[in-house]
Amino acid sequence: MTKDLFGKALLDYHKGNYTEDLITSTNISDEDVLPLPYLFRAYSEMPKLEKKALQLCKGNVLDVGCGSGSHSLYLQEKGFKVKAIDNSKGAIRVAEQRGVLHTELKPLLEETDTFDTIMLLMNGTGIFQTLEQTPKYLNHLKTILNPNGQILIDSSDIKYMYQDDDGGYWLDMNANYYGELDYFLSYKGEKETPIKWLYLDFETLKTACETIGLDCEKIMDGKHYDYLAKLSI
Ligand SMILES: C[S@@+](CC[C@H](N)C(=O)[O-])C[C@H]1O[C@@H](n2cnc3c(N)ncnc32)[C@H](O)[C@@H]1O
């Protein structure tokens, strides 16, 4: 069971009780600060990949793992019909309180409505957790996609995280896929239950898509090994 520390942090920030940021780390990297204001970013503060994804939206939109609802709010203001889902209770409460009109507390695999655009942003592949589970998630996304619909998803090739100072890689070829990380989160001294979080390089995502009959096109590269992809049937 998770403690929903992510949701608690969003709620604190939203209520004006911002005193600390979230602290993240992974099995291959040290502690890092995830600033809460970033999770409430306005369109002008979003990375170019996210701006591009928002510009490409069409029809009715599903925002998967909506967090505080920043992307949904932008689209709503532009006149789009948007549904925002998240499996964090705190996130959904904040998204509602910020004005997202259609929200639901549910994991992606329980979504059954259908959409013209499905958006998964801020390392959208993270939600798949492992490479092994990726086909299950992609298949599900396919079943909730309308004809001529699109899935907009961002991720990164994190091979650079395994690079030594001398430029060599310390990848263990017998281990699981290198983008599968154990992800640790803490907030105000409390530790969240560790989760699996998946970063997929574009070629691996494309192969997984093709295996289940989805087209996968790279829309844009980001600043640091990240990219935006568009999946369609
Ligand atoms: C990195 S945050 C991104 C939040 C938001 N999209 C943004 O860009 O600020 C990932 C979000 O996905 C949610 N999440 C993780 N697994 C999920 C799942 N299986 N179904 C729905 N939401 C999920 C988390 O609770 C969290 O709010």
Automatic annotation (TrEMBL):
Transmembrane segments: none annotated. The keyword Membrane does not apply. GO terms for biological process: methylation. One of its GO terms (molecular function) is methyltransferase activity. Keywords: Methyltransferase, Transferase. Gene3D superfamilies: Vaccinia Virus protein VP39. It comes from the Bacteria. It is an enzyme of class 2 (transferase). Its EC number is 2.1.1.-. This is Class I SAM-dependent methyltransferase. It comes from Microcosmobacter mediterraneus.
